[in-house]
Prior knowledge:
The chain has six helices and nine strands, in the order ββββααααβββαββα. It has helices at about 40-45, 50-70, 80-115, 125-140, 185-200, 230-255; strands at about 10-15, 20-25, 30-35, 35-40, 145-155, 160-170, 170-180, 210-215, 225. It is an alpha+beta fold and about 260 residues long. The termini are far apart. It is about 45% helix and about 25% strand. Strands 1, 2, 3, 4, 5, 6, 7, 8 and 9 form a nine-stranded mixed sheet that branches. Mean pLDDT is about 85; it is low at about 1-10. Helix 5 packs across helix 6 (about 230-255). About 25% of the residues are buried.
Amino acid sequence: MNSVSQRVDTLQSHTLYNGTVRLDFDPIKHRYKINGEYAYGVTTALSVIAKPQLIWWAATMAADHVKANLVPGVGLDELEIQELCDGARKAHNRKKDKAADAGTYIHNYIEDFVNGKNPSRPINPQLNRVIDDFMQWWDKTDIEVISAEQVFCSPTLKLAGTADLVCKVDGKLTIMDWKTGSGIYPEMFLQLAAYAIMWEEEHPDQPIEQLYIVNASVKNMFQTDKSDQLEFFKKGYRQALELYRTTKELEEMFKKGWK
């Protein structure tokens, strides 16, 4: 019996800018459309920024795999050498997938908590430690939730994205994002600045006053960082977006033979 695979329509649609703009998001392809035209996702533009720490990390994972699977004085045949090389090549992906599972759980837990769903505490001790740290920080921080999982778009920049939280912290209008990786990095503030650009385009009378990153990770101790240097980071994001667009245009010109 032949079976036919069908995609379940999961398209998410939002009406913004007082009903004048329609934003569609396809979570399967992770693509946005603004009024029917494709738009860039916020993090797409940031791919032009070099991340040398990731190269070092991947190389370290490969080296650790080789060290763990070589026995001094024991030779390898051709197939064993190939297997060792293949394992080293994929070592960083296996590590990343495991970390991603923990990060997804933590992110979903925080999202559910902020949305008032009262999620059950995890049994895993590492996850429980992270949630403990988050809850202690939340309880002692003056936060007024305005909108969780806030969707943004900019028809002028053809840009779209979703921020984890728009809120007030100590009375300051803030874009906040949950991170669950190995730390807090400068380009994260560029991402939040993009959300600020889009929020202010739609709400020009409500300027964002602060960018706030919360890093809840099983890898490191709980940490947060914030900045009120909005103009600096917004300028940096616009430059990254322009460079990304230029690289895409160059690729298209090259494919067409510079015509």
